[in-house]
Task: structure prediction
Amino acid sequence: MTDTTMRDFKSDPIVHTPSPSLPPPSSSVGVIGWMRRNLFSSPINTLLTVLGLYLIYLIVPPLFNWAFWNADLAGDSREFCDSGGACWVFVKIRLTQFLYGFYPEAERWRPNLAIGLGLVALVYCLIDGVPWRKWVALFLLVLYPFVTYFLLSGGVFDMPLVETSKWGGLLLTIVIAVTGIVFSFPIGILLALGRRSNMPVVRMLCVGFIEFVRAVPLISVLFMSLVILPLFLPEGVTFDQLLRALIGVTLFSAAYTAETVRGGLQAIPRGQYEAADAMGLSYWKSMRLIVLPQALKVVIPALVSGSIGLFKDTTLVLIIGLTDLLAMVQLAAADTGWIGYVKEGYVFAAALFFVFCFGMSRYSMYLERKLHTGHKR
Result:
């Protein structure tokens, strides 16, 4: 190549202009693309999709007609339930019984105040950046249980005494579930630490308790707390039926919480423990400041799943004579004036359980994203 040609090439370089990108095919984006990828990606998926749509066609329209279109909503007696659909009049008339059990009507402001106070304090603690947040959380964990007990039971400040045998419905379900979840959490942490302890006696006791409780169903623990627990009490000391059930539920949940927390402790790299030792921290300081915060963050999904399971397992207390939400539905349906309308009561109870459990699940997902539980980078 001559010098002249080289100069011409340098002065007039060849420029390649890229062609504009073409839009993706309409069949691969949007709703059509999503359906092709997720519902009709293969012959088997197509067959399952068609079968699922057919099942929805068989189930949803009749259910909608029964629950809404042909339902009876207005009225104050069974005579108004003549459309052939759901008789929500039954739920309407028995609503206060489903919510409060046999709690005296004139004193129902007390459970309303207790639950409202707890919800306000809980929502306040969940808001980031608000002042006195730690003090409100401390109030929820330490003082609020006693405030709630005195509000519900009475006997102080001129409030009439309401025996625990009159507590029932959703109120009793919330009391048992919240008590079991809150008190089992610190006990479970101590059991998990004890199971990993270097002291043989402590480790043996914790392992024995955890394995024994996890090897029996909850109903067995409830019967043991109802029948056997009084045998270990001093003479003249008695616990009422509700308190025995609360102790049984708390200990049962603590055993499962301990195993969940132990899994989180084992997931923490050994270097974290060694770093705490290198800093000269004591065992309890290293656990409180370094190890436990990381371990609890990892096991948030498992802890919330256990809490949801415990909330649903509270229905077992009806077997030992406590009238929780499900027991109140069964008692109301056994009324001779409302025989045959138990389905509406069960659907109402299922809807309440769904609201509470779904709320806990969604908050768990929010907490995971906030704390980056998956260790995203």
Remarks:
- The mean pLDDT is 85.
